[in-house]
Every structure is written in C-alpha cells, then in structure tokens.
Amino acid sequence: MNFHYLLVDDLLSKEEFDRRVEEKVAEAGDLLDEQTAAMLVVKDLGRSHVRVRDIGGASSLVCFFAKVLEVGEPKEFERQDGTTGIVANVTVGDETGRARLTLWDEKAGGVREIEPGDVLEILGRPKGGGKIPDVTAAAVQKAACEIACPEMTEASAASPGPAGDLEVRLISVGNPRTFKRRDGSEGEMVEAVIGNEDGVFRLVAWAPAVLEGAMPGANVVIRGATARESEQGIEYSLGEAASLLPSCREIAVPTDSIESVQEGNSYSLAGTVVRVQPARSFVTRNGRQSSVRNLVLADATGEVPVVVWGERAEEHLAPGDRVEVYNAAAKRGRQGALEVHVSWGSAMVVVAEEEKEVDLEGTVIPTARGAALDTGDARYLLSQPLPVGIRVRGRGIVHRGVIHLEDVEAVQPDPDGLRRRLDRFAGGA
Q1: For residues 392 and 363, what is the distance between their CA atoms, to the nearest angstrom?
Q2: The whole model's pTM is what?
Q3: What domains can you pick out in the chain, each with its CATH number?
Q4: Which of 133, 160, 254, 288 is positioned for an S-S bond with 56, CB 3.0–4.6 A?
Q5: Rounded-to-integer distance, Cα 4 and Cα 403, Å
Q6: Run means of pLDDT, 10 residues per run, the chain, 429 residues
Q7: CB 293 within 8 A of CB 162
C-alpha cells in the first residue's frame, strides 16, 4: 500500500490512508484485496491512474499502467564525485502511446526481472511534454491486468521511419563537419536542434545543402525527415530528398522552470546569467582539443549551475545576459549539487540586447576575462587593448557587457583628488 500512498501523501496521513483502505475491504465483504482497495481510495481522492498520452501534461507524480515493449541493459557510470551509479531505460506503452521509463541505481538493477509483454504499474515523475514522454521511476510493480498495446520488435525499434511534415523552429544550426563512412570515404553532415510545442529534438542533415541558408530562429516546415528513437530521445535525419519551407505561423517552444529540474531528465530553460567563469581548455579521450565553461543561470523560481561543453563554451557571456538552453541534461556534479549540462544534442541561445551609446570615464584594470574599464559604478570588458592602469575618457558602444571605445583620450590624474583620497585612506588606517 505504500506504493499507492505516495500519490496522496500530501492529502492525508499514512494512518488515515490505511484506515480508509481497511474500510474499503470491509465494505466489499473481503472481496477486495488491499491493493485494489488502495487504488479505490486514491481514486476517491482525485488521484486516479492516467493514460500514457496524458503523462506529458502532468506536473508532479503520476501513476499509470503500461506494457513493457523493450528493456534496455543496465549501464554503469561514474558520477563526478567518484561513486558508481547504474541507469536503465525501459520503453512502455498502452493503446494511447509510448513512454520512456528511466530507472536509477537499485531500480535499474531490477530490470532483469521484467521482460517485454509484462504489465507494470508505474509511479513516476514526468519530465514534461513530448511525443514520447520521459518518466523517472519512483516505484514500479508488476500488475495482473492486460493492456492492448502492440509489442515493439528489435527491428522496429532500430529502423527509422518517415516522420511526415515537421513544423518546427530552428533553435540552432551547426557548421558542416566531416565524418568517415564505413567504406572509408569522407562525407559532410550538419547537426541542428529543433523544437515545437511537443518538445526539443536533435536533427542531423546528412546532405548539408538541405540546411544551407537556414537561420536559427526561423519557423520552418521540414519535409522528408525520418525519425528514430535513441537513448537521448527522438532524433530526426535528413537526406538529399528532404526540403525546408517557411512556416506561416510563430512556433512556440515551451521552457521549464529551474525549480522543476531533477536529476536524470533533460530540460529547456530560460534565464539570466548571474555568474560566469572563463572557458577552460582540455583534451578529450580521443585527443581532440575542447572547452568547458561554468555559469549560473537564474529565473524567477531559483538558480542552477550550468556546464557548457565544446564550441558553445567559447561564446562570449557576461553577467546579465539573457540565455536560453535547450535539451540540457540534469546531472549531479562533483560536489553532489545538481547541474545542467549543455553538450551533445543541446543548444544555447544568447538573447540579443540592444546596443547603447555612452559617455564615460574610468580606469583600465585587469580581470580574469581580460582588460576592463572600471567607472566606479560599472565595469565593462574592453573590445580593444589599452594599457592597464591608465585612466581614460571616451564615447563608446556597450553591448552585453563589452564596450567598444571611440574618441578615447587619456586623463591625467588629479593631484589634489589623489591627495585627498590618500589622506582619507591614511585617516581610516
């Protein structure tokens, strides 16, 4: 009964729940078992089971029955704190759709006890909307009921299928890069991230010309895409026969709140950069040079550390920038804190702000991010080199915390003012 009580633990105590279950059993003349009675109590409290198609609209714990369609092998991984974790994915479904169930640690080790065709009663936390919703399992138990849902074969899971017309917003479009085919020849590909009201997805164009001239932010209709399921979710592929057409409507891509972020899921967030560190270079396992950067993103609900990997880490960022991250994975950092990682299959968009013209005077000082102009009230990174320590006056254009100075001139220090400051300092000492 503890399984079902989790659905209503915010409404009544465990003692009261048990009492109501006993009443249900007594009223039925002992014709009900405790599990069925517990389900009836949950239903009386307005927390009945949902269908798979309704999971995406839920914001908290959900309970549903589903048939096991595919069971993934448990995989070990090393957390940043050095401990070992286990994760496993199970594809489940009913007559209304499919869902991807993620199990961690002890629950992941138990997947060997289930097999395709089993029916499960699942208590979990959904990530949000999507054609195939992701659910992090809180509790799972086998159920003695039948569900009409076709089982997924290995061939059907691995082979891509036509996706029809996709009406999406292009969130990011990468640069063409080469890859090596199985026969040893080289080809080109372009990776992109797309999104719509159903979620955010990775897109790979094996014929880069299909995405030629496509600009991030554009609303388009993609024809000729094929879809496949991967561990990271649905992703789409474009061949030479695919094409892009402008969409006639503005396509909204929903974002999540920072307070909703939980380990093991992927999120799309919009917020303000409150702290940012310089990018750091490192060498990957395959010997390639790459970069990583840490920042903190905040919205009205809270703050979350963000780790940006690869080329995106080299992008200029400053406190106060409005940033959107898409399809970013939530993981535990080395110190055990929850982090959001922008890496493979993710996108980061810096929301453009208007430039402003300013007249100011300040001192050039060194910072970890380069030379900056300190006015006493604000600090701006300099776009051009100036000697550290000099005081300058000028007119400039400020954009995202960076100033490009024009008509700049050196300012001679005021001896009287300097003497007064020294006297105040000496008096305070």
Answers
A1: 6
A2: 0.51
A3: 2-150 (2.40.50.140), 160-246 (2.40.50.140), 258-350 (2.40.50.140), 356-410 (2.40.50.140)
A4: 133
A5: 59
A6: 66 82 74 69 71 72 85 80 82 84 86 87 73 81 69 40 73 86 81 88 89 87 81 79 82 90 90 90 81 93 93 84 91 88 89 78 81 81 84 83 82 67 59
A7: no
